[in-house]
Amino acid sequence: MPHAYLFSGQDGVGKFTTARAWAKMLLCQNRLQRPGQTPFFDSCGACDSCRLFESGGHPDFQPINKELITFTKEGKNKTTPVKMPVDVIREFLIDKIATRPQMGQHIIYVIQEAEKVNDSSQNAMLKILEEPPTFCVIILICSRLETMLPTTLSRCHMVRFGPIDTSTIIRKLAEIGVQEPENAYWANFSEGRLGLAIEWASLKVKGDRPYQIKCQMLERLARATLPDTLELAEWMCTAAKQIGKAWSSTRENISTTDINRRAQSGLIQMVILALTDALKLHVGVPEPLVNADQPAVIRQFADQYEPEMLSLLISRMVDLCRWVEDSVNEKLIFEQVLLNLTHSDIISLSIR
Length: 352
Ligand SMILES: [Zn+2]
Hints:
This protein is of the alpha/beta class and about 350 residues long. It is about 55% helix and about 10% strand. The termini are far apart.
């Protein structure tokens, strides 16, 4: 068994879920061998270790994320940075690596968002990736392989995670009570990222669901004219904030700033998908519409914009998603969304 793994793939395809299942199985005191075409080992779910694991308090399972910054020696009152802080890697991995397991044979470290570990921290980790103590298993979770140093990659056993097919996501969402056409929308929206689909579909935003916000938003955007810009931008801003707030309350291990960014990008992504649908109508692509639940709204978008304008608008929306990543003020971003949609000629100069 390798002692260092790198799980790579987009966010929301099950890397952390798999790391947890793997860790739980390794730590289990009564491992079961499941029959089948390829027999495999599984955790029992009933022993002391499994129960402790499920309660979130297993001492030998150590997830490492940038939110741990507040628990480092110098980190009191620090806010979560965008990058993984060096102090977290040093204090929660390197300094601890010789610590023996408390309950069983293994201790498992899972480094979340490894793509945010900078080069000098990666260099500091090399020795332990090369030769960790025999009882250690280290799993790096990474959504952008190009950020990892070749020296890190060469020391890890690589496991790649691909997107999950749409029909599986639709079925999984139906299992948790999300019905047509909502489940189909989130399955397409998430592009194979089941975790992301589940998160959006399960959110409750002041009694509404994000799906209802999406329907309302597209309806309003399809009818928007220049005088509506400020009011609608404000409306989107508020919607993003409310989604962010609801989301934060379900995810303690992600910073509020990151969640708010995801909510903002999510709304812009919804606009991109609607514009793409309108483009599909124009060019007669046989693929079903992502917004098949709102055909009249998509028709309105298609009537308003020529195909060239639609592709230009889509690329501008993609640019605005980058603004979100760069922490540009959200009000400014949503105003740009609206200004682009309602008065594209003028804005082509200011946005470039
Ligand atoms: Zn067990």
